[in-house]
Design a protein that fits this description.
heterodimer; A: alpha/beta; Glutathione S-transferase Yfyf (Class Pi), Chain A, domain 2; Rossmann fold; four-stranded parallel beta sheet; 14 helices; about 45% helix; B: mainly alpha
Chain lengths: ~300, ~180
């Protein structure tokens, strides 16, 4: 059975939002919680959520031990009501999986981290299951369709699955890791057209988004190639699962001819009838979204 | 943990085991974004070879280690599932401990300082939008939780290590703009 199938169809479900959504995209925070509620869950999040520090870990500036401790802190927030976590961010999702793998495989690290957390009144949970919120939308597509208020008809969408979902733990991906398709199917079922484009597998250019610790010129060229490939396929909108990728595309310089971009929670919120401005705050996006024009 | 610096050669020796299976088939470089798009000649297959041969002695330069996007494309294609991104992360960490991560540090400095101060890597808040959406206006950690978190960061050595980064790379506690 796929891990996502194990989530109860209703009841409490912890939503991990991540730093970027909390800080820069209130519409992702709102729609992640609201859409899951509309689908029958009792979603909850916590302002005690700390940064996963995935970016600091991957750049070499923090230890696996700290990564595991911060993940442990966050699992304790979920555990009172749910053993399932739905992450709205690919990098946070990957950081959880890396941390859980570390405490599973290294008993010394586990004991140390649990002791440090315990002294701060935090009880981490090891048997928690971490999912991406996009996986839940895919599993519950029938419920989305039942409640669908708006169609994506006439909209050509370029789907981009972030690397830290699709590639860092390929064995955990929903469907075939070599060709992640589930969001394309969802777009189609909701009336839109998910275009096939040559650079579907390519990274968004990542390092531009938050920190810029990589070579900026290379990052820009990657983003340019990605955008160019999407445009060639006729895409009018980019659909992402990660606020980091969203930032890369949203903040792309004018000369790269950026396309409008939406997070999967926002897209589901839109089709379920949430107000694009009053509830999703989509007017905030740098490139105007076709959804706002088409109503 | 901070206090004890990681040993670059020790890391390289351990990583040589990880890369030993590498056939130099080049599938990784066929897909790797910085290999495809960098104009500085980065090649992930050559990086793998460098790490493989570094058991006996440290290569003259490991600067290209910072070009990796850690996107895991190479792992996806590698016929032997060699986790090169993991090797890159470990090497970055030991090199950073020895003052060899100046440019990269500039990129993460604000994230580190924000983590220490707020428990989040990004800490701005779109208060007007949040208010309109009916969300809590300030999404920050409650003060009591932040106090516990800061103690945890101290015990983890996270705080001490941040001090080490400052002394190695300069820069004080910057404010978010």
């Amino acid at each position: 059975m796929k891990r996502v199938e194990e989530i109860p169809k209703e009841g409490p479900l912890y939503v991990h939002l991540g730093c970027l959504s909390r800080a820069m995209y209130p519409g992702i925070e709102y729609s992640s919680l609201k859409t899951l509620e509309m689908l029958g869950f009792k979603p909850f999040s916590s302002y005690e959520e700390v940064c996963c520090t995935g970016l600091l870990y991957l750049s070499g500036f923090t230890s696996l031990e700290s990564l595991a401790a911060f993940a442990g802190w966050n699992t304790s927030l979920a555990s009172a009501h749910s053993k399932h976590i739905a992450s709205a961010c690919d990098t946070c999702y990957s950081a959880y999986l890396e941390a859980l793998r570390a405490v599973r495989e290294d008993s010394q690290l586990r004991v140390k981290v649990e002791k440090l957390l315990g002294a701060r009144g935090v009880k981490p949970v090891r048997d928690v299951q971490v999912h991406h919120i996009a996986e839940i939308y895919s599993r519950d597509k029938d419920r989305i369709i039942e409640r669908q208020q708006r169609s994506l008809e006439g909209l050509k969408v370029a789907v981009h699955h972030g690397c830290h979902y699709a590639k860092s733990f390929p064995e955990k991906v929903l469907g075939k890791p070599e060709n992640v398709r589930f969001l394309k199917e969802l777009v189609g079922l909701l009336g839109g057209e998910a275009v096939e484009y040559a650079e579907e597998n390519l990274c968004c250019g990542s390092c531009l988004s938050v920190s810029g610790y990589c070579d900026r010129e290379t990052s820009l060229r990657v983003t340019e190639a990605k955008l160019s490939s999407m445009r060639e396929a006729g895409a009018e909108l980019i659909l992402v699962t990660c606020p980091g990728c969203l930032t890369t595309f949203n903040e792309a310089p004018e000369e790269l001819k950026p396309l409008p971009v939406l997070h999967v929670s926002e897209l589901v919120g839109y089709v379920l009838g949430l107000d694009p401005i009053g509830e999703l705050a989509l007017e905030d996006r740098k490139v105007r979204l076709p959804l706002l024009v088409k109503g | 943990m901070a206090g004890k610096k990681l040993n670059v050669q020790k890391e390289l020796t351990e990583l040589a085991g990880l890369a030993e299976k590498c056939l130099q088939c080049g599938l990784c470089s066929s897909i790797c974004p910085p290999t495809r798009f960098s104009e500085k000649g980065f090649n992930v297959r050559r990086l793998s070879m460098k790490i493989l041969r570094a058991k006996a002695g440290r290569p003259a330069s490991l600067g290209e280690i910072w070009s990796c996007f850690v996107c895991f494309d190479c792992l996806k294609l590698c016929p032997h599932s060699i986790n090169l991104p993991e090797a890159v992360v470990r090497l970055r960490r030991s090199l950073a401990h020895h003052g060899e991560a100046g440019e990269a540090y500039k990129g993460v400095q604000l994230c580190l300082e924000n983590m220490l101060r707020y428990g989040r890597m990004v800490s701005v808040a779109k208060t007007d939008v949040r208010k309109r959406l009916g969300l809590r206006v300030q999404p920050s950690l409650p003060e009591e939780a932040l106090k516990r978190l800061r103690l945890l960061m101290e015990k983890l050595g996270f705080t001490e290590e941040a001090e080490m980064w400052r002394s190695l790379y300069g820069g004080g506690r910057s404010e978010e703009g």
